[in-house]
Amino acid sequence: MRKNPNAVPDDGGMSIWDHVGELRRRIIYTLIVFAAGMVGGLFGAQPLFDYLVKAAPAENLSLNAFLPWDAIGIYMKFAVLISLTFAIPFGFFQLWR
Q: Where are its TM segments located (predicted)?
């Protein structure tokens, strides 16, 4: 006799599809936090970049751009780094819950 995979177990737990739905919901929440952090990171990338360039160890270094996209790539890398600063702890919190 084959059991129904959508049926709730007798012990009151969640079925496999309930778990998949819960995982999907938490992944979507984490992606929303990542996207919001990316928007904030786009605004915070330039001040962070300026601060790091003016810091004492990098004060005498010259910056070179070999391709037209180098400046945009650095800017986006800073934005992603700022976004991950918020998204990774939130994702771990979602895993813990």
A: 27-49, 69-93
